[in-house]
Amino acid sequence: ILKKKYGPIRILNVNQYSESINTPEEGEESDPQPEMALEK
């Protein structure tokens, strides 16, 4: 679902969050700011 919605750019963002949070699952759901930035 996330891949379809945001594409590869979203994956890169998740990777950065994974390194910061050490939990990819939480990073995907806990980053509303990056989501808005990508939309704009």
Automatic annotation (TrEMBL):
Q: Where is this region: Disordered?
A: 16-40
Q: Which domain of life is it from?
A: Eukaryota
Annotated protein name in UniProt: 6424_t:CDS:1
Record organism: Racocetra fulgida
